[in-house]
Amino acid sequence: MSRRCGETIEVRRRDEAPEQFLWRGRLYVVRAVLTCWVESGGWWRSAAARPLFGVEEASGLGSAGSSAGPGPESGSDDLRLTPIPAAPKWGQRAWGEPAPDIGASVGSIAVDDGERECWRVEAGAGRAADTGVYDLCFDWSAGTWTITRVLD
């Protein structure tokens, strides 16, 4: 049986892997690391990433590479795309093709990608206690650990 959780916990690591964690006032000792993985978040849905795909706030859709939307001239720190001039003859790639004209970002951008590092561990509280399997996840943008699943 599996239960989902979302509680914040404290974790102590050794050699990158979780060694102990404190959950609901009890100290759990990791007996074995069963697996680990990284989950990428939905960074492409963030407001800061929308201009990268040509999506405008008001109308919903815009043309890719357009400079529509607020820019530094309006006092906003939003991302704005501006074209890079075509590469001169000396700016060609090694195999003879010119570098493509692409947009460059102007302004600051902070994209919370929501990436999490997850560990499935076998752990127990105390020497005589039965062990269980727990999913522990570290959220890079928040800097916090959570226990996401308990497997009985």
Structure description:
It is a single chain. The chain is mainly β. The chain has two domains: 2-41 and 113-151; 46-110, no CATH class. 0% of the residues lie in helices and 45% in strands. It has strands at 2-14, 17-23, 26-39, 80-83, 103-106, 116-124, 131-139, 144-151. It has a six-stranded antiparallel β-barrel with strand order 1-2-3-6-7-8. The radius of gyration is 23 Å and the shape is elongated. Mean pLDDT is 74; it is low at 58-74.
Oligomeric organization of the protein chains: single chain
Structurally, the number of domains stands at 2
End-to-end Cα distance, whole Å, is: 5 Å
Class derived from helix and strand content: mainly beta
Query: Portion of residues in helices?
Result: under 10%
Please list the strands of the largest sheet in the order they lie side by side.
Answer: 1-2-3-6-7-8
Integer-rounded radius of gyration:
23 Å
- The helix/strand series, from N terminus to C terminus, equals EEEEEEEE
Compute the average pLDDT: 74
Low-confidence stretches: 58-74
Number of helices: 0
How large is the share of residues in beta strands? 35-45%
Q: What form results from the Cα inertia axes?
A: elongated
> Can you count the beta strands?
8
Give the biggest beta sheet.
Answer: 6 strands, antiparallel, barrel
